[in-house]
Structures are given as structure tokens and as C-alpha cells.
Design goal:
CATH superfamily of the largest domain in chain B: Response regulator
CATH architecture of the largest domain in chain B: 3-Layer(aba) Sandwich
Distance between the termini of chain A: 57 Å
Largest sheet of chain A: none
Structural class of chain B: alpha/beta
Number of helices of chain A: 3
Oligomer: heterodimer
Helix content of chain A: 55-70%
Strand content of chain B: 15-25%
Structural class of chain A: mainly alpha
Radius of gyration of chain A: 21 Å
CATH topology of the largest domain in chain B: Rossmann fold
Distance between the termini of chain B: 177 Å
CATH class of the largest domain in chain B: Alpha Beta
Chain lengths: 73, 379
């Protein structure tokens, strides 16, 4: 699944773009149906990712105590 | 006290500068640093570079000197302060304290210092609403400046984890209390700002404590560092009622670290609801389109039927007219009126002058009469 490599926000952005596509007066019904399918699939993937993905915590290695001491008198 | 001389030799002789150096050496050995509490008097700043003041109590006064670089809070005469300083004797023979840190002490002085600095920074426009930048909708990378051991940090990461998934927290572990805290936080701000790919938002966090514990967040250089951060900053410092200068200058002030987590990322439920309502909206748009299409088809069908009916009416009218005309020119109708039809022997209608003796057939309405021409003349 190509969605696996995408971040949740990318997926949400894509979903948003699809939803915005519908904000027009001259909807082509065939295109609309395929866009809707795409949107529903994305929605499903997003919900799945929300349920399973983990947040990553990276502790910065820099020593801020040492950095802070440097410019002092 | 160390003495350079011993009993068996005469006292050594020093030049004045050497003597001053000797005293300073002795002072440094005895008290390299001293923390003193007292009241400020004669406070003045020279050339925006050097700070001079006295620190005193009911009986004694000490001269103090420091660079503006170390002056991180607003100080004025009459304020109770705590200073850390290095004692020394100047070239002019005056005993002086070289101050490394100074901060107000006691509720009244802390409040006064806060108000003074707040007024100064406010006048510079650092707290203006138009300087505030919005939070990213959903950040992918958040720079966190906090103490990883502090409760506030734990609350923050816990709530972020409960609400959202798949994001990265880059955590700069710093002291969030004490004299070196502001400089460490500034170093962390600089670190994040200088990254080739900086985080989308920086969260400065510290859990609750007494107002005194939060003075690190009223530090002038820290406030200026937040103001000049190119990455937007959210603060979640102390309790809801505590407002620090860092809060005032930040792009967004969260009441607490937990509140910062809530402001930074939407909850899973919110997202799921947002998605569902978007899909519903899209579906209803599709419904409308389909209904519009059906209306359009119906209208077309109706107008087609009307056209066909119009054509049929037209045809019928034309048919009736033709029938009437046909009826009028029917030869049988003419014969009934008394006329006769004369044909030659070939059956053709006589149109040229017949010859005498030609056989002709006369047709009336009722009879066929065979005749022979006796005579024929021009009329």
C-alpha cells in the first residue's frame, strides 16, 4: 500500500484536496464518483493510522547546560 | 590567611598593584562566590554597558558592578534582590562585588521587576497582537524545550500521545528553573532555529510551581529570544493563573503544558468527526448533482414530447386541408353536377378535334354511353 509511507498529515492534506474538489458547480458525476471512492479509501487509511501509529520522541543530544555556560562572563 | 612571609625573614615589600593582586588572590581563595541578599540603591547603567549599584541593609553597604549582559531582569532602587558575586578590590582600592546574577526577591520586588520589564518590552511592541503567528494546523515535527524529568513534560507527551499519532517530538532537555535556566532555554531555541529543517513549532514547557519558580520565564534575553525566533513558539508554563513575560511574547500562550498539547494537535475523535462530516458533505453535493441531472433529463424529455405533439398537430391540420381540396377536385363530384367525361377509343380524355366516324365513350354520373362522331366543329 503506497499510503504506508505517507505521514498522517500528508494523508489528511490529500483528503482535504479531494473534499475541496467537490466545491464546484459543474461536478462531473463520473469523476465525482471516482473522487469519492478515493476520499473514502483515504478516510479509512487515516482512521487506521490514527489508531495504530506511534509518536516518535527524539531527545536532542546537544548539551544545553554547556552551551548556556559558554557566553557567560 | 596565607602569608607570603615567614617569621625568620623580614616582611616582604609589595608594589601597590601587587598588593591589590595579592588581596584579590586571597579573596578569590576565601570566597570565590558569595550570595548576598539586600536592598538596591544608587542603581545606574553607564553607556548601556556597565551597571553600578549598592546593595545594603540597615547597617552596611557594598558597591556592586556588573555588565548589562548579566542583567536579565529590571532592577530599580529600593528593590530587594539576591545577587551572586565575586568580591574583589579595584585598582582604586575600593572593595567591590562583581555581580554575576541578580534577581528580585520577595513578592513585592518580583512583581515590581516584572511590571517594569513588561512595560519596557510592551513599549517596544514585543507583545503586539500583530506579531503573533498562528499555530500550524497539524504539526508533523514539534520542538519541545523542557526538562524531561518534570511533571509538565510528562503530562504534555502523555496528552499528545492520547490525542494524535505519527508525529515527531524533538526534545531539548534543559533546566526550567534556576539561574542557568533562561540561558539553557535560549540555547535550545537557537538550536532549533538553526536546524536546516527546523520544527514547525517550538513548545516551551514547565509545569506548575510557585510564582518564584517561574522567574526564569521573566528573563529579558529569553523574552527577546522568543520574540526573534523564526519558528513560532507556544508556551505552557506554570498554572493557568501564572502569566510570565515569555507567555506574553510567545505566539500562543497555553495555560499549562497539558493545554499546550491540546492546542497543538486535534484529538483522534475530532479528526474522525471532521473526516466523516466532510464525506457527508461531499455525498450531499453528489446527491444534488444527481438530482439536478435527473431534473435536466425530465425537462428535456418533456420538451421533446411537446415538440412531437406540435408536429403531429401540424400534420393532422395539413392532412385535413388536403382531404378537403381532394374532395373538391374529385371528377365524380363534377359528374354528379351534370357534367360528362368524353374519352376516345384508347380511353384517353378527348383533347383534340375528333374525326367523323371516331368511336367515343361518354361517361356521366350514372351512365357509360358509346357514340360515334357525326360532326365536329370548333367552338
Amino acid at each position: 500500500m503506497p499510503e504506508k509511507s505517507k505521514s498522517l498529515r500528508q494523508l489528511l492534506d490529500e483528503f482535504e484536496t479531494i473534499v475541496e474538489w467537490f466545491d464546484r458547480d459543474d461536478l462531473d458525476i463520473d469523476q465525482a464518483i471516482s473522487k469519492f471512492e478515493e476520499g473514502s479509501n483515504l478516510a479509512e487509511t487515516i482512521k487506521q493510522q490514527l489508531a495504530t501509529a506511534k509518536n516518535k520522541i527524539e531527545i536532542v543530544k546537544a548539551d544545553f547546560a554547556a552551551k548556556a555556560a559558554q557566553p557567560k562572563e | 590567611m596565607q602569608a607570603p612571609a615567614n617569621n625568620s625573614s623580614p616582611d616582604p615589600v609589595f608594589g601597590v598593584s601587587d598588593a591589590v593582586a595579592l588581596f584579590n588572590q586571597m579573596l578569590e581563595t576565601a570566597t570565590p562566590h558569595i550570595t548576598i541578599v539586600g536592598e538596591v540603591a544608587n542603581f545606574k547603567i553607564n553607556h548601556n554597558k556597565w551597571v553600578f549599584f549598592d546593595i545594603k541593609d540597615e547597617e552596611s553597604t557594598l558597591n556592586c558592578f556588573m555588565s548589562t549582559f548579566n542583567l536579565r531582569v529590571a532592577i530599580e532602587d529600593g528593590m530587594k534582590v539576591v545577587v551572586t558575586a565575586r568580591p574583589n578590590i579595584t585598582r582604586w582600592g575600593r572593595f567591590s562585588l562583581t555581580v554575576q546574577t541578580i534577581r528580585p526577591m520577595g513578592e513585592g520586588s518580583i512583581r515590581r521587576s516584572f511590571e517594569l520589564l513588561k512595560a519596557k518590552l510592551d513599549q517596544e511592541g514585543l507583545f503586539n497582537p500583530e506579531r503573533k503567528r498562528p499555530l500550524p494546523d497539524i504539526p508533523q515535527v514539534i520542538g519541545v524545550i523542557s526538562s524531561t524529568g518534570a511533571a509538565g513534560y510528562v503530562d504534555f507527551t502523555k496528552i499528545i500521545g492520547e490525542r494524535f499519532s505519527g508525529l515527531t517530538l524533538q526534545v531539548a532537555n534543559v533546566q526550567v528553573q534556576g539561574d542557568s535556566a533562561p540561558q539553557q532555554i535560549i540555547a535550545a531555541l537557537e538550536y532549533f532555529n538553526e536546524l536546516a529543517l527546523p520544527p514547525e513549532i517550538i513548545a516551551i514547557l514547565r509545569g506548575g510551581g510557585s510564582r518564584d519558580d517561574l522567574v526564569a520565564f521573566d528573563d529579558e534575553p529569553l523574552v527577546r529570544a522568543i520574540a526573534s525566533s523564526r519558528v513560532p513558539v507556544i508556551t505552557g508554563v506554570g498554572h493557568e493563573i501564572d502569566v510570565t513575560l515569555a507567555d506574553l511574547v510567545a505566539d500562543v500562550r497555553a495555560a499549562t503544558p497539558s493545554n499546550a498539547a491540546q492546542l497543538l494537535v486535534p484529538s483522534r475523535h475530532e479528526i474522525a468527526d471532521r473526516i466523516d462530516s466532510s464525506l457527508k458533505r461531499v455525498l450531499s453535493q453528489m446527491d444534488h448533482t444527481i438530482a439536478d441531472l435527473a431534473d435536466h433529463v425530465n425537462e428535456r424529455e418533456k420538451s421533446l414530447l411537446e415538440t412531437i405533439e406540435r408536429h403531429l398537430d401540424d400534420l393532422t391540420r395539413r392532412y385535413d386541408t388536403m382531404r378537403q381540396v381532394m374532395r373538391q377536385i374529385d371528377p365524380r363530384a363534377v359528374l354528379k353536377r351534370g357534367y360528362a367525361l368524353v374519352r376516345d377509343h384508347m380511353g384517353g380524355v378527348v383533347k383534340s378535334k375528333p374525326l367523323i366516324g371516331d368511336s367515343l365513350t361518354i361517361e356521366t354520373a350514372q351512365f357509360i354511353i358509346e357514340t360515334e362522331v357525326k360532326n365536329a366543329r370548333e367552338k
